[in-house]
Each structure stands twice: as structure tokens, then as C-alpha cells.
Amino acid sequence: AALWRSGSAATPGLTRSGRLLSVGLLIQRKAVLTPDLTELETRASDLFTRLDFERSRLSDFELRDRAESEAAKRSLSAAAEGKVQVARDGAVITAKDLMQRWAAEQQAVTLASREAADPSLKRPAVLLSTDADLCLPCCPVVDGDASLRAACDRLLELMGLTASCRLLGNAPVGLHTYKYKKSPVSLFLHRAIFTGADWRSAEASGSWKWVDADSLPGRVPDRRLLKKLRLLAAEF
Amino acid sequence: MLTASIRHIFNYASFGSRNFHLSVVLPAEPLKKKKRVDPQVELERIRKKTRRIEKEIKRLEQRGRYLKPLDEIEGERHFIKTLDSRERKLPAPSETEVEQRALLMKEWTRFKWRQLDTECQLLANQRRELYRAMQHLRMLDPSLFELATQPDESLLGLSLSGPLYTLPQSAEVFDAVDGDYRDVTPTYRYTFEVDKKMTFGKKK
């Protein structure tokens, strides 16, 4: 059966009690980048870091640094008084030398810019159709489908995302009922998660696009379905 | 005659410093008589002991090292002994700072409570939606409902990673080094060497 996207022409499917059964996939992509912290979160994070530091004890490395600093001060003061001749041995690596070396190594590492990245990567997204009138990928349950899960697997195969998506559970997570040409339709929504290495591969065909929660109102025409999608696609 | 003999005794025998004396106080009992030990029996005893120890070591090595229960872990003694010298000498925060910290903690607590409340409501709504969908499915087709209630075995072993702080660099900027991964994690094998004097050849 051809891919039947919600709202389009219906293909023959299973009917029960006069209702056409269909399954829809809520394919979610987790956030690729960590979201920006709010002002309160930043302040709280700084406070907790400071408290952790204040309550902590000196590590072996810090003890070594303190001991070497005190030894250096003593030897310098003794040298100033003319008691001991200080000869700096270049072969001895102190804790301060190590810290300078680590700081230099850290300077050499350059991270990619977060500001230059697409802001939508910091939020989870749902895969929707690029067609203006259509939204969720869905298809009717046919006689050949042993279960709703089998219908979802068939739908993923039609979309070409079997290898990069994982269905979560056999049970539907939501229900959307509507009428198509005066025929009642029961659309059972199943949750799937995108596990592919490159999230852009799902958009390669041009039929689908990742849409984050803020852009959902512009893409989903049905208000009841929009409310359900916002509920089901919410992240914790 | 009797008196003369008694007098003789007293004069010459009993209390004179030359003839009557006390020996040194003995702190221990006299040594016991040394038993003759059969060397073969002694060797056999030592051999049995080492055999028992080696068997125990082999059994422990096969089983692997047991991890100590968390309740019994006392921490490293080195750190406990040097706890006093490891204190950070930082200036105490001022009253203003303490007040600001307290206010921030209150604000943070309120924020996290609101977040928890929102998440609990979200979970409850999602659970209600799932229940509604399952009830509807059961009404329409009980056989499909039964199949939908079965556990999903494919969920075992699902692992997700991310999110990242920054996107990975392009190959022009940072080219990861190819090569084999060599695990250099230190592992300690406990070996027990038995003194050669204690081991003898097997009895023929």
C-alpha cells in the first residue's frame, strides 16, 4: 500500500466497528546540542561549583604544589640571607610546570562554535512531512498486518528509515480520531526514536523535515492533533 | 644429748649464710622433655599445609576478586591520616554573600519544584492519553489490544548518547588519529611463592 499521510486520500484498510484503523509515527530526534542555560541556572551552577570547591579537600597534586611553593620560598629566603646556594635544576618538573603545560595544551584545543550552530539543534524535534497539507507519517492497518506494531514497521520501511529508527514499545501512546469523507478514522500514534548517526539523513529524500516544538503550530493544521503532538513530543 | 644435737644443728647447719641459702626465684616452670619428632611426619605436615594454601589460591584466582561491600569500605587510610593537612584555608564569605547565597538557593528550590510539578503533570497527561488509546483499541479489536500489551523485547540493549556541548569539528580542523587501541589498564595478579624449603618432592 502506498504511503498514506494523514488527511490525504485513503487507501483500503482494516475497519472495525465502522472505523478505519490507521497508525501514525511520532518519530522524535533528541537534542543534538545541550540547550543554553537560563540566567538562574547559570547562577545556580556557579554557586554549586563554588560550594563544591569550598567543601572539598586538597588533592595530592595541590598538596605537592603547596609543599613545593613553601620549599621554594624557604630556599629563596635562605639564599637571600646567604646561607644556601640555590641552583635551579632544569630536570626537576614542579607542579606549577605541569599546570602551565596543561594550560598550554588546553589553549591548543579549539571547539566548534555553539553560536554558529543551528539553534534548532538545541531542542528536540519531530519528523513531519514537507507537504503543506500533511503532517505526520501514517498509513492504514491492512489485513496483512498481524498487529499495530507490524503496521508501524511496514510504514518505517516505506519511509526508508528502518535502520535509523527504533520503535518504542508495542502499545500506541496516543489516539487521534477524525473524519475523512464522512468516514470515521482512528489514528493510533506510536513513538519512535531516531538513532541514526546523522540526523540530516532523514531529510535527504526531501519529503520529511525535522520540526521542533516551537514550529509545530505552523505545520500541523488540526488543532486537536497539534495539542496531542505537543503533549507527546514534550521532553523532560 | 638431744639438746646438744639440736644446738649442733643450729650452729652449723640450718641458718648459716654459707650452708643454707635460697636459690634464684624461678619465673617459669622447668622445660619439658624434648619429644623426638619424626622428620618425615614433619615434612608431611608442612607439605599438606602448603598444598591447602595453593588450593585456596587457585580457587580464589578462578573465582575472581570479590568486590568489597560498600558498607565495609572505610576509605583510604592515607587520606584519613592526612585529612587535617588537606583543609583549604579560604576566607569566610561575608554576610552579604551568605544572604545572596541563601536567596539564590530559595529561588532555585522554587524553580525546581515548579519544574517537577510540570513534569509530573506532563507524565500524568501522557499516561492518560495512552490509557485512552488502549481502551479505544480494546473496544475496536481485542486481538490487536492483546498484541499491543505484549512486552517489546527489542527495547533491551537500547542505548542513546548525547547531547553534546559543541558539534564535532570538520576533518580540516581536527583529524582524529587512526590506530589500534591498546588497553593499558593496570591489573594486579596476586602470586604466592612458597618457600622451596617447605616443598619437597612427592612421596614415592
UniProtKB/TrEMBL annotation, chain A:
<dbReference type="GO" id="GO:0003735">
    <property type="term" value="F:structural constituent of ribosome"/>
</dbReference>
<protein>
    <recommendedName>
        <fullName>Large ribosomal subunit protein mL46 N-terminal domain-containing protein</fullName>
    </recommendedName>
</protein>
<dbReference type="Pfam" id="PF11788">
    <property type="entry name" value="MRP-L46"/>
</dbReference>
<feature type="domain" description="Large ribosomal subunit protein mL46 N-terminal">
    <location>
        <begin position="21"/>
        <end position="100"/>
    </location>
</feature>
<dbReference type="GO" id="GO:0005762">
    <property type="term" value="C:mitochondrial large ribosomal subunit"/>
</dbReference>
<dbReference type="InterPro" id="IPR040008">
    <property type="entry name" value="Ribosomal_mL46"/>
</dbReference>
<dbReference type="InterPro" id="IPR021757">
    <property type="entry name" value="Ribosomal_mL46_N"/>
</dbReference>
From TrEMBL, chain B:
<keyword id="KW-0496">Mitochondrion</keyword>
<dbReference type="InterPro" id="IPR019192">
    <property type="entry name" value="Ribosomal_mL40"/>
</dbReference>
<dbReference type="InterPro" id="IPR039145">
    <property type="entry name" value="Ribosomal_mL40_metazoa/plant"/>
</dbReference>
<dbReference type="Pfam" id="PF09812">
    <property type="entry name" value="MRP-L28"/>
</dbReference>
<keyword id="KW-0809">Transit peptide</keyword>
<protein>
    <recommendedName>
        <fullName>Large ribosomal subunit protein mL40</fullName>
    </recommendedName>
</protein>
<keyword id="KW-0689">Ribosomal protein</keyword>
<dbReference type="GO" id="GO:0005762">
    <property type="term" value="C:mitochondrial large ribosomal subunit"/>
</dbReference>
<comment type="similarity">
    <text>Belongs to the mitochondrion-specific ribosomal protein mL40 family.</text>
</comment>
<keyword id="KW-0687">Ribonucleoprotein</keyword>
